[in-house]
Amino acid sequence: MDTHRSTRRLGLYPPTEPHRSGMLDVGEGHSLYWEECGRPDGVPVIALHGGPGGGAAPAMRRFFDPKRYRILIFDQRGCGRSRPFSEVENNDTGRLVEDIEKLRAFFGVDRWVVFGGSWGATLALAYARANPEAVLGLVLRGVFACTQTELDWFYRDGANRLFPDVWERFAGRLSPDERKDVLMSYHKRLMSDDPAQRREDALEWARWESALISLHIDPDTASPEARRADALARMETHYFANKGFLERDGILLDDTAHLADIPGVIVQGRYDMVTPPQTAWRLHRNWPGSRIEFVHDAGHAAGEPGTVDGLVRVTNAFAKRFS
Questions:
Q1: What residue numbers bound the domain in which 183 lies?
Q2: How many Å apart are CA 184 and CA 190, to the nearest integer?
Q3: Helix axes 182-190, 226-241, angle to 10 degrees
């Protein structure tokens, strides 16, 4: 275990633009937006965005040295620039894992580094479980395994005790009966086919998450963009109501034999209110080849200075190791 402390912190790499991008038809009515940046013959890395439903932001490219990495990024089903937008049909974890394999074949990659935070970490672990032979190494942030304990913390009893004012706004729009199961009640509302009817519920769902994501954000100023909030809220409730479409609770944390030969580093905010550190610690304890770094002045957000520093140091080390 490392306790991450550095006198000179590294920042993100300068902005870089894709030299290739496009859409990949993965079947069942879904097409994925993808992009490629950096060095064409560099160490291949696939970066998995959070949510589910969050979409890939340009800043994701900047965790990797473009002179050493072939940076591959895509929007998962139903979000970002992928089509159809905000669609939950034919959208589950198994299909997302298969999509990643289709992208690997499309890009002609034998093995790659898999990088993901929050839901991206969930998906990275699910992918490594299904395809360990394709993974050079794992870089994980804010580990989330979609367990019942984690879902209860965020949507039943846990985070609400630390953010009672924000929770009151989030749960307060529900009826007393609906408040008995906030997650399932929001899920029912957000499955409406009418975007206008579900708009305020989607925004409130996204505000609750946004308010807790960083130590450096005032919860009262969290204001998600409406279109992104719709995909995020629908996709999250769809996945969380179905326990991540995983075979059993905790499988990504406890069934780790396939990770034995895969090097991995976990960068975890000590004050992460969205994905509390106990999940990352449990994974680390069950994965002997892993290393964990706790960032003592960070919450959940990928962009917090200490977290950026930790992630960039890891990707730099992996670039040297795998080049």
A1: 148-244
A2: 10
A3: 120
pTM passes above 0.90: yes
Give me the residue label for tokens 């998450």.
209
C-alpha separations of 80 from 38, 58, 86, 105, 234 in Å: 21, 11, 9, 22, 13
Contact 104, 70 (CB under 8 A): no
pLDDT at 214: 85
CB 113 within 8 A of CB 65: no
pLDDT of residue 111: 98
Share of the chain above pLDDT 70, in %: 96
Residues 26 and 135 placed together within one structural domain of the fold: yes
DSSP 266-306: EEEETT-SSS-HHHHHHHHHT-TTEEEEEETT--S-TTSHH
Domain boundary residue among 195, 213, 244?
244
**Residues with active-site annotation:** 118, 272, 300
**Which tens digit of pLDDT belongs to each residue from 70-105?**
999 999 999 999 999 999 999 999 999 999 999 999
**1 confidence band (pLDDT: 50, 70, 90):** low
Q: How many domains does the chain have?
A: 2
Q: Does residue 54 sit in the same domain as residue 107?
A: yes
Amino acid identity of 81?
R
pLDDT over 70 (residue 34): yes
Report the alpha-carbon distance of residue 148 to residue 203 in Å, rounded: 24
Mean pLDDT over the full length of the chain: 95
Whole-number Å distance between alpha carbons of 255 and 205: 31
DSSP helix/strand/coil, 320: helix
